[in-house]
Amino acid sequence: MKKVININFQGRVVPIEETAYDILKQYVESLRRFFANEEGKDEIINDIEGRIAELFGETLKKGGTCITDDDVNAIINSMGRPEEFETEEASVREQLSGEQKQYSNTGSTSSSQTYSESTGSVRPERFYRDENNKLLGGVCAGLANYFNIDKLVVRILFIIFTFGFGFGFITYLILWVAIPSSASTTIGSVRKRLFRDPENKLIGGVCGGLASYFGVNIWIPRILFLIPFLSIVTSWNHWGVFDFPNFINLSFSPGATLIYIILWLVLPEASTTSDKLEMKGEKVDLNSIKNTIQKDMEGFGERAKAFGAEVGERAAELGSNIGARGKQFSAEAGGVAKKAGTTLGDIIVLIFKIFAYFILAVVLIAIVGALFGVGIAFTGLLPLKSYVINDGWQNTLAWGAYIFFIWVPVIGIITWIIRRIARIKSNSSVMRFSFAAMWIVGLFCVIGLIASLRNDFSYHNSPVEANIPLTNPGIGKLELKLQKDTRYYFSNNFLHFEPFANIDEDTAFVQNIHIRVMKSESDSFHATILKMVNAATKTEADEKADRMQFNITQKDSSLLFDRGIPISKEDKFRNQTVYITVYVPVGKRILIKDNVGWSDRFHIELGNDVDDWRWRYDEDGYNWESNVEYTMTAEGLKRTHEEKKHDNDENDDNNDNDKTSPSDNYKDRIDTIKNNSNDSTRYHYQPAKEEQQQKEVKVAIEEPATKRIMNINVHDLATTFIERTAI
């Protein structure tokens, strides 16, 4: 039984057999003799001892009670012996000089490989990640070795599970973390570990460590971490008027920042030479440690030499000025307090400068992001350009605004930032004036385009309300539905870009469709349609309105609507709008069916700010909800089934809900009129709103529409009667 002692080796308490300690001590002494004449010998010996201490720790973690002779010999074999490096050059020359020896070496190598392959076919006792045949983490190669199957089969299965079922990647990561590496079975074997790189860091060295681990350029992981921040402006693919295509839909979340912070906290820093070698996947032995340390010392020597030259120049400059400074010493001594105050002021100024530069950077990033977002927005609108912009000057101005006003500032600011980082100052004034001139050209293009488009929307057509013929107006219930037209797909937005299905070759479809529900004066359903459009002249607007196509047909008890207003490339989009009014008799029911998905544009909209007559046109309609059956009463629309009472305040005001009865409303109105009856300055009679509307809107000579326009409000009649009675 061998004696075990405890030693303090590189800051670690290591239990080791006494004979093993003697072997270790002899090895360290041989290293000191071997590196006696090398530059940085102390650093080399210290790093080698540190590596040996790490291997001691790994051996003890595997369950060993102490370091044995075999452990020390295995570590020495992995690190290399000094005599091996002394004869390395001679061995290489001998191998290159004799072909027979090279052939024999090749034969022995192939035989050893054959033996390795034959022995590799035996199933291992444990599952390890194969570090020698890995593409990423060695999981697939380890599974193939364990089950004695082809590695390609396992990799194909993982790809299928990843892209077909979605859980292959998570499984791979779990196995990568949980399964030990095959390198852990051999002391001092070549392996690659993930560290933070302190020599190539901007923040924490995470990207530098990832680049070294995967063997790629350092800018690749930096760009991958930066892309989510650049995608803030494109993180929302819904902008109200259109949807972005998927290829520019980049979702932003704090995931990239969170991953970076976690890696920063979890990954150790490559502080020692062995850590730096393992980070790159290089073998840690005497030769590699020596080369790394000497390379670092050469770089340090160059930096120290440059620093010494700079210090010498500063010292010479200080010596030349020492006389003049000595003459001013008495004057400066008198202003010590003032200088102290100045120093404090300089610190405050420095803090404000840092804060100002930070604000400037944020503003620049915000400007670039805003311009980038606007550029992407206009890029998304390009498929609609031929449906909005006229050929000729408008088309030229649109392209000029898109290129010079939107993208030139983005390219210019990014170029300026890169030149500032790289400290490139050549021809900066020429480039600056060139970008400024192009942006001014783009500004004039924007102004011209807005003025031209504004002229195309200057006038609207004369509103003419026409009857919609119904085949069965005497039914008891009418359902409003959309046509089941599978040619077009409409979303809840104005135009949907993602599938581009709402643009059919030379036609676009818009959903500027308003539906009103009114009380009928007869015992039958009837409906009217009003088409509105803008143009450069009133005559042109009337012609465009005549060419508008919007079909409404009745099938049994259903009233079917087209799913959109078709717009050709010749007519262009000029705010084409359709107003549909459905008159419901008292006691009959109406249901607006959500059979294929109504667009938000189909719902009633109050307060259109284009023209005053549109406000008055919309204000008398009753509010409604889809898939809810209503019954028309003398007071207005009411739900047929009262089990769901969640009408909003507008429905309450328009439909006279149960909280306030009509008699209470009349009573309050009578009290108000009586209180104001003695005021001689007040008018006691107001003309009906329909009279004003009749002056502004010319109506087609059709009986139902005429009856609706000439309808007198019952409340106004009651008010007039009460006022005259009070007087």
Automatic annotation (TrEMBL):
<protein>
    <submittedName>
        <fullName>PspC domain-containing protein</fullName>
    </submittedName>
</protein>
<feature type="compositionally biased region" description="Low complexity">
    <location>
        <begin position="102"/>
        <end position="121"/>
    </location>
</feature>
<feature type="compositionally biased region" description="Basic and acidic residues">
    <location>
        <begin position="656"/>
        <end position="672"/>
    </location>
</feature>
<feature type="transmembrane region" description="Helical">
    <location>
        <begin position="156"/>
        <end position="179"/>
    </location>
</feature>
<feature type="region of interest" description="Disordered">
    <location>
        <begin position="640"/>
        <end position="695"/>
    </location>
</feature>
<dbReference type="InterPro" id="IPR054321">
    <property type="entry name" value="PspC-rel_TM"/>
</dbReference>
<dbReference type="Pfam" id="PF22571">
    <property type="entry name" value="LiaI-LiaF-TM_PspC"/>
</dbReference>
<keyword id="KW-0812">Transmembrane</keyword>
<feature type="transmembrane region" description="Helical">
    <location>
        <begin position="247"/>
        <end position="267"/>
    </location>
</feature>
<dbReference type="InterPro" id="IPR007168">
    <property type="entry name" value="Phageshock_PspC_N"/>
</dbReference>
<dbReference type="InterPro" id="IPR054319">
    <property type="entry name" value="PspC-rel_ToastRack"/>
</dbReference>
<feature type="transmembrane region" description="Helical">
    <location>
        <begin position="430"/>
        <end position="453"/>
    </location>
</feature>
<feature type="transmembrane region" description="Helical">
    <location>
        <begin position="354"/>
        <end position="378"/>
    </location>
</feature>
<feature type="domain" description="Phage shock protein PspC N-terminal">
    <location>
        <begin position="192"/>
        <end position="270"/>
    </location>
</feature>
<feature type="transmembrane region" description="Helical">
    <location>
        <begin position="199"/>
        <end position="216"/>
    </location>
</feature>
<dbReference type="Pfam" id="PF04024">
    <property type="entry name" value="PspC"/>
</dbReference>
<feature type="region of interest" description="Disordered">
    <location>
        <begin position="96"/>
        <end position="123"/>
    </location>
</feature>
<dbReference type="GO" id="GO:0005886">
    <property type="term" value="C:plasma membrane"/>
</dbReference>
<dbReference type="InterPro" id="IPR052027">
    <property type="entry name" value="PspC"/>
</dbReference>
<feature type="domain" description="Phage shock protein PspC N-terminal">
    <location>
        <begin position="126"/>
        <end position="181"/>
    </location>
</feature>
<feature type="transmembrane region" description="Helical">
    <location>
        <begin position="398"/>
        <end position="418"/>
    </location>
</feature>
<feature type="domain" description="PspC-related ToastRack">
    <location>
        <begin position="504"/>
        <end position="624"/>
    </location>
</feature>
<keyword id="KW-1003">Cell membrane</keyword>
<keyword id="KW-0472">Membrane</keyword>
<feature type="domain" description="PspC-related transmembrane region">
    <location>
        <begin position="321"/>
        <end position="457"/>
    </location>
</feature>
<dbReference type="Pfam" id="PF22744">
    <property type="entry name" value="Toast-rack_PspC-Cterm"/>
</dbReference>
<keyword id="KW-1133">Transmembrane helix</keyword>
